[in-house]
Design goal:
This protein has one domain. It is an all-alpha fold. About 70% of the residues lie in helices and about 0% in strands. The longest helix has about 30 residues.
Length: about 90
């Protein structure tokens, strides 16, 4: 973590089970974190990112579950026309 990120931290105290503590220590070792606190923060960041992805996936699912046949057909046609040309001019 950067010095700037460290300056914005809030000191808290938590009680964890031995299994949770072992997981934090393993994460610290695996991710080469400087402290258990940093390892726990990394785990929480990963959890937040996973939740955001789940929310995005749910929004896509909701959209496609509720889209009309007309909307879906329009998207299929657009994809068929655009798909082969989408990467023209982009270096490989």
């Amino acid at each position: 973590m950067t010095i700037h990120a460290t300056a914005r931290k809030i000191k808290r105290s938590f009680t964890l089970t031995p299994d949770s503590m072992a997981f934090v220590r393993e994460t610290r070792r695996r991710r080469r974190a400087r402290s258990d606190s940093e390892a726990l923060d990394l785990l929480l960041q990963e959890s937040r990112q996973a939740r955001k992805l789940e929310e995005i996936d749910a929004a896509y699912k909701d959209y496609y579950d509720n889209a009309s046949d007309e909307e879906l057909q329009e998207q299929r046609e657009w994809a068929e026309q655009t798909g082969p040309n989408m990467f023209i001019g982009i270096p490989e």
